[in-house]
Amino acid sequence: MGGITDMKKTVLITGGARGIGRAAAEVFAENGYNVAFTFNTSSAEAVELERRLNENGSAAAFKCDVTKAESAEKTVADVLKRFGKIDVLVVNAGVARKNMLVDVGESEFDFLVSVNLKGAFNFVKAAVKRMQWQKSGSVVFVSSVLGQDGCSCESVYSLTKGGVNAFAKSLAKELGPFGITVNAVCPGLIDTKMNDNLTRGEKEDIIASIPLRRIGVPRDVANAVYFLAESPYITGAELAVAGGAIF
Q1: Active-site residue 233, yes or no?
Q2: pLDDT, tens digit, 9 for 90 and up, residues 120-136
Q3: Half-sphere exposure of 212 toward its Cβ, with a 13 Å CA cutoff?
Q4: Model-level pTM?
Q5: Catalytic residue (choose from 33, 157, 226, 233)
């Protein structure tokens, strides 16, 4: 029996049932990866994606609360039991809220920080233990251009994504000696449910400021995620996927 080097590569994607996460799962599956992905409340979407990806490959969905360290640890252990290793971790699970700072309550602040920052910390810590032992691996964070430039009425969301970007750069330095790359993809306005709170007029105003004159689609971001995951000499990078827009 061959060792783990003989097996297909495996990607673990947090928040993989919808939007950018689902598109990433599809791109990695199309490129021959085993695909493991987490979901929390999107049960129906997760079941359907798992079924579809298993038609021509190997995929598994895992229910997980990314804000709980024990849930992240168990998920990583279950993925390793199912597929033998984790070559790529895509930290995608995230939430957004639009509010003026003076109207942000403590519960809203805690929710954004818990999912976007603590969730990222929990999964990277759990997965990197194995990657360090393997002396190889790739971590790709799905962050945001708002983590680079900020945005009015989304200061707390921007704060969390700025933290993700700093986390990625720090880990790139820390994990490089283990052969692990760490990068961040920073999407602009993407056509996902996260942006359903925007009115048609608000979207039109944003589109007018985008040189490519369109809203991005999840596949645009997923292709960038795959590119960084497969790039052995790129680490510590922030790749904007925003149609040329500067927010």
Answers
A1: no
A2: 999 999 999 999 999 99
A3: 14
A4: 0.92
A5: 157
